[in-house]
Design goal:
It is built from 6 helices and 10 strands. The relative contact order is 0.14. Strand 6 and strand 7 form a beta hairpin.
């Protein structure tokens, strides 16, 4: 599932829009066991006309995270809204394909996990690509080099050894920038959004580059 993010800065704090935001809204709406409608979620989103809400609710329903709880009357008497009940509550937003099956772990998540835990003492792009690859997913050196470049530009990495070219340089994640388990997101503006601290390195409205 390609995560579509829309970032809006309000008083210097970026607000996340996309499937992660939708899930956080659902958790909040159902905190006391209440049901909800798509309209309820739309009201807390920056783009009520966006199809992202409808699409994600459909995926959650097919995956069994939501159950159909009937309908309720909308603002017009002739219109009824579909009601949902949350039946599978978890902290992290489920990443799902359109058919409701679980989507694979994003490559950026694999790389972030690796450089935070396995390669905390230093790594090259080749090391990152090799250690982040799994039996199911292969991380190319090109992909690793791009992510390292963006993290370095955003101040997450310290260069231990320059090497000959960026791919041969040795890097280390700065301890202060080991902000949490969720990977910083590279945006189309080439800014970095850190979901662990809700901080944006750069500004404006942007879409996440699919990993």
């Amino acid at each position: 599932m390609a995560a579509v993010l829309k970032l809006k800065t309000i008083n210097g704090r970026p607000i996340l829009r996309g499937y992660e935001h939708i899930w956080s809204v659902i958790l909040d709406l159902t905190r006391d066991g209440s049901t909800f409608t798509r309209h309820d979620v739309d009201q807390r989103s920056c783009d009520p006309g966006d199809n992202t809400v409808t699409d994600y609710l459909r995926r959650l329903l097919r995956a069994g995270y939501l159950a159909d709880a009937g309908t309720c009357e909308g603002s017009a008497t002739h219109y009824r809204r579909r009601v949902y009940r949350l039946v599978n509550r978890c902290q992290e937003a489920p990443r799902l394909r359109r058919d409701g099956s679980a989507a694979p772990t994003p490559v950026n998540q694999l790389m972030w996990n690796t450089l935070r835990v396995l390669l905390r003492d230093g790594f090259t792009v080749r090391d990152l690509a090799a250690f982040a690859s799994t039996d199911d997913q292969s991380v190319s050196e090109v992909t690793a080099a791009s992510y390292v470049k963006r993290l370095a530009m955003a101040g997450y990495l310290h260069c231990l050894e320059p090497g000959r070219g960026r791919r041969l340089a040795k890097w280390r994640l700065k301890p202060a920038m080991n902000t949490g388990p969720r990977p910083p997101k590279v945006l189309r503006t080439h800014a970095i959004y850190d979901p662990n601290t809700c901080s944006l390195h750069g500004d404006g409205i942007a879409d996440e580059v699919a990993s």
